[in-house]
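User: Structure please.
Assistant: Input sequence and predicted structure:
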Amino acid sequence: MATEKEYQALHDRVAALRETLASRLAPDLIQNPQLADALTRQIDEMLASVEAARRTEAPPPDGGLASLAGVGAESSKTLGDNRLPLGVEPYDETVASDRIVAVGDLYYLYQHERIGVFRVVQKLQELFRAGTVRLSADAGAFGLYQFDRREVLRYTQRDRILAYRRVLGYGRGAVPTGSRPNTDFHNLFTHFINQVTLFWRDKRISDVIRERSYDPSFGSIAIVRRAGLDLRNNLKFTSFGHLNVMRVEVMQLLDEAFRILNSEDVKRLFGAENAWDVIEEVLIRYFNERLVTSPRQRMGVTGRDVLRWLAAPHVMQTQRAQFEALLLEVAESAEEWLTSAQSLGLAGRATGNRVMPWDQSQPQPTRPTVRQGANTPPGLQREYEMEY
């Protein structure tokens, strides 16, 4: 049982150890800055092991209250003799990874929904039932029949729209009773990706010239961690419910849709070489839509990669070397997502403002940075205001 006196003595000794090492190794630390990171990590690990051992000690039956209040034979004479707990389990370590992974899959599905994959299959069903297309009994025709028959067993389009609205905040559909749309997701997601891209941009600059070497936010892992934790905590409560089951079913539905669109009779019908060609041909011919297939699809793939990275405990890493090595996994994905989102007017590239106000009630997307003389977009499209 750690007392207040022992607690204070421990931290005083650790502080003295840090100061002694910094004083004795000062010349080496100037020549080799990485040595400071190694020493800090070792001392932090020693302190963490001591604290972990003390947390396993059983507290007295009354939690130490009698000793503190001066009641009974075991009452303490000084404050330093009283039990001092080390704290509780950190909040940010209580997030379940499987729910964040499910959100990543839902985001992937949402982007394919926005592309129009399911609307294309529904249109083919209408044409097939009306007999206005040359489909009869081949693999595509039979797949359309089965797709139609199984519809009663699946989550409906309305169910999917409600999930997008509740979890991602996208769309205008009403959310189920007792829940609310997650309108903070898009801004938090964009903010995190911006901080990842800024971090690697700063690191690339630092490898050449440290033009802002005295800026405390230059290449700061703390800013990236905070942005990631804000996003992960936002998804903590919106990812409950039937999301896990629904995304498994809709992923199966998406796979089935692409099998139909990639069948030889359907591709022959539109003179297409693959399923994506069929989708674009139907969207142009029957919906008269401007195609956003490529950027939307890449947003779905790279956005899911980023959210999967957040589901892992990587964001809790506090050591720079390890954090950089882990963050490198999504460095290119974040840059590609941001570039694709910029091309659609869905996100802006941050420059100097690196902190997002916590009490922001209404998301305010940042306008994309454009070159002087270029045509400024009339207004950003806002995912959470669009209908399907």
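The chain is about 60% helix and 0% strand.
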